């Protein structure tokens, strides 16, 4: 038989948390957590107040406006080429017998570059000469016949006047004389045709010698002895000649955005990879109106004349040119960074609030100014330690400095180009 023992009053109070000691421990823990929270809040408030109480200063970097020569340039790339380059081919087909020049050979106009084998043409010329001899023999026969018919006609004419011969005999003699005259004319025409054929054949034989059309230098030779040349459809290029390498040209591609400032007669300088650090002078000779489109980029070809007396430049070299479009002497200029500068906005204190600690506002950014329609811009000069706004009208720029055309700016004025916040 099981006997259950009832709990005492002290055990019941301990289980329900009604005893004095348990309640005191709970309240101690609560007070500790509340004190810790108050300390954290107080520390945050103190740090925020200290941050807001600090004053910030702005350090400005300035550059004086100065008078200088402003040179505006346009960049273009291209290739160096001879002023006159000639591709020499053969007008006749045949087998090359001899080649008299090689690459870099100096040639004069009329020099024989190569010879084609003329054997077949010479045989044809011999046949034509024989045909000419036969035609000349026919002409001699026709003239003899004409002379005979002329005598017969005169004899018949005398007899007819004397009434001895009939009129029919006179008509027959006259017709024979006319036929003889026609025979002479036909023989002479045959001789003229044969002579024309002979002249054409002699011309073809002369064209078996490939001659230089200009004074210059051989850039490329593509002909070799024994090579067969077929010029029936398209004549192959056997030699490439440059007329004068001492005077060359630069074919530069100018971007469509810059072509309005580029004109004939402007000076330029260009460099090539073969001679680092060396600049070559040039002058714009002409600008082509025909556009060149590459990957949707439109350019126009400018031809620049180049003095290559020292023969340093070679055909095909890639060049980067700087074309001087404007050269302004004694221009009032400022750095381009001054036109982009905007002073920082000064914001006053908005007081303290708990929400500002946990929900700070985002910083504000100013938009940069843009020029007006008449080219007016805003500059800032440093006056008494603070930025002062002035209005100016700008001109051209070389990429680093911009010309000031008009406005309340004088040489030597400290123009602000940048600023930096500093706390104290």
Description:
There is one protein chain. This protein is an alpha+beta fold. It folds into five domains: 9-53; 57-69 and 331-423, Beta Barrel (conserved putative lor/sdh protein from methanococcus maripaludis s2 fold); 74-83 and 241-327, Beta Barrel (Elongation Factor Tu (Ef-tu), domain 3), CATH 2.40.30; 89-116 and 209-236, RNA polymerase II/Efflux pump adaptor protein, barrel-sandwich hybrid domain (OB fold (Dihydrolipoamide Acetyltransferase, E2P)); 118-207, Orthogonal Bundle (Helix Hairpins). Helix content is 32%, strand content 37%. The chain contains six helices and 19 strands. It has helices at residues 9-16, 20-53, 119-162, 167-206, 336-340, 354-358; strands at 56-64, 66-82, 85-89, 94-99, 106-107, 112-116, 209-211, 216-221, 228-229, 237-242, 247-255, 267-272, 280-294, 297-307, 318-335, 376-383, 386-397, 401-407, 414-423. A six-stranded antiparallel barrel has the order 2-11-14-13-12-15. The chain has a four-stranded antiparallel sheet with strand order 3-10-8-5, with no helix packed on it. A hairpin with a 2-residue loop joins strand 16 and strand 17. Helix 3 (119-162) packs antiparallel against helix 4. The chain starts with 8 loop residues before the first helix and ends with a strand. Mean pLDDT is 83; it is low at 362-368.
